Amino acid sequence: MVVAIEYDRRMSEEKFIGYLRLVEACRTPGCPVCRCVLDESRGYLAALLYEQVTDAGTRRAVRASWGFCGWHAGMLPEIEQSIFGAAIIYEDLVRLALERTGALAGGARPPRRRGWLAVLSGRPRPSEEVARYRTRPACPACVSVGQTERRALDTLVRLVDDGDLQAAYARSDGLCVPHLFAAVEVGGARAQVTTLVDRTREKWQTLGRTLASFVAKHDYRNREPYTPAEAAASSRAFDTLTGAGGVFGNDLRGTR
Predict the structure, then answer these.
(1) Torsion of CA 247, 72, 53, 83, to 10 degrees
(2) CA distance linking residue 66 with residue 78, whole number of Å
(3) What number is the average pLDDT over the span 34-55?
(4) Can you tell me the distance from the alpha carbon of 209 to that of 211, in angstroms, rounded to the nearest whole number?
């Protein structure tokens, strides 16, 4: 019973902290859930580089995924005093990459040069190594941050009419398109989903009008200067349609 109470207390604290972070994220430009994901990404990487570089479980996960995805690897230089920890991890990863790609070098030779001894030795063929790489586990930072993303979406749906959160969301730029669809998936048939969709679409409509005004002011007959909101509208539109840079990756590997 005591264990259950302690577990519930920790979960309540975690949800409360997540709530406060979401409210705070609404005060910054762009999609608030994207902001939560970006902040959590940097926090995860900083904690790993400062405290978990030698942790066996952490290193196994990083090794299994061949390191971090391009998005999270690109964040490493942004983490203050991270170069030494990152160098320790990636020195190991470069060595592993050399070991794991040995079969690819052998496979580049003409088939007749493999010989029956190479076949009997059980050495993986290049196609096996390629398949193993293509099916590697996800970036551990993405796995961790994905949990934060889902909690933020769930909080936003469940507490859409909460006073502080409602006021914060009203002042924000609203969700991006990918995160609105994700919120609909998380929220399911809850009535709050419709409320969130309606409020978000109102923000997009405002953005659309601001963009239209910016475009119209390019008419050579116009003498009215752009407003700061109009000048920033295009950048806001980019993030609204696709999410903050890097959060949703690219479609090259079909990961999202």
Answers:
(1) -140
(2) 20
(3) 93
(4) 5
Q: Which tokens go with 48?
A: 């790993």
For tokens 């002011």, the residue is 217
Output the six-digit token pair for 124: 């993986």
Distance from C-alpha of 54 to C-alpha of 121, rounded to nearest angstrom: 34
Please give the Cα distance from 120 to 117 (Å, whole number): 5
Measured CA to CA, the distance from residue 127 to residue 253 in angstroms comes to: 18
Residue 17, token pair as written in the block: 């902290």
Asked if pLDDT for residue 1 goes beyond 90, the answer is no
The residue length of the chain stands at 256
Identify the DSSP state of 80.
Answer: T
* Residues whose CB falls within 8 Å of the CB of residue 154, separated by 6 or more in sequence, listed in order: 186, 187
pTM of the model: 0.80
User: 49 and 55 in contact (C-beta within 8 Å)?
Assistant: no
Phi, psi (degrees; rounded to nearest 5) at 242: -125, -5
Paired tokens of 81? 């005093």
Helices (H), the chain: 2-25, 32-51, 56-64, 70-75, 83-100, 102-107, 115-120, 126-134, 140-158, 163-171, 177-187, 191-216, 228-242
